[in-house]
Amino acid sequence: MDMLSPGARLALLRNETVQRLVQREIERLILTGELRAGERINEIEIARRLGVSRAPVREALRTLEEADLVKFEKNRGVTVREITLDEAADIYEIRASLEELICRRVAVRITAQQIEELRALVQRMGEQATSGDVESYHESNVQFHEKLTEFSESREFAGCYRMLINKLILFRRRTLGQGHAVVISNVEHHAIVRHLAARDADAAGRAMHRHITASGRRMRRSLQQFLKNLDQVEAAKAPAALIAKAGRNERRDVGAKI
Length: 258
Known about the structure:
The protein starts with 5 loop residues before the first helix and ends with a helix. The chain is globular and about 55 Å long. Strands 1-3-2 form a 3-stranded antiparallel β-sheet. The protein contains 9 helices and 3 strands, in the order H-E-H-H-E-E-H-H-H-H-H-H. Helices cover 79% and strands 4% of the residues. It has 2 domains: 7-80, Arc Repressor Mutant, subunit A, CATH 1.10.10; 85-231, GntR ligand-binding domain-like (Four Helix Bundle (Hemerythrin (Met), subunit A), Up-down Bundle), CATH 1.20.120.530.
């Protein structure tokens, strides 16, 4: 059996630590929207920005590919992965079942202090929804679901939840930003907390499943409306483009006659 020298072990540990730090930073750039879906990731630029060589950047991207956040494309390099509408719908369906299990588990072990934490958070979300502060509401909404996962005291649940949420984060931002969606979303949060406070695992689980399923429907409607609006904008541009082209042709014909 080969034994690494202390110096070699230290170098290996240092390399692994650098790779993890690079991976977390790239993941942060993706989840905050600084790197957008479909955008090409420049390894050289990332390495320069973080002050590291390209090797840990490349390894970090391989790990993020396994997590389905980026993909390697021939002749394009590495890009932030784009999730289709159908894929997002599937993820919401899986998430509904997962968070139902989490809620059922939390209901039988939640403490009075944890209930008060959730109530205070939902109250703050209500104020954010009323004032139209969608960005702050989004952050609080993420915190609400993360707290429930934390209260479940399950590393397996937490790992599965994080993997799903990382894929949905951009969809959820757009969905929550639609009209009165934040108000409806928070009414559902109130119901979940009420059932958790009553230690009713069945009711809490069902309320969470309904909430995530409804969030999925809101996401689909939001994106369909977004695509419809985009089509209308493109359609409106078409006549102007045709008029401009006709004008250019007319000027060319006049010039030819002169």
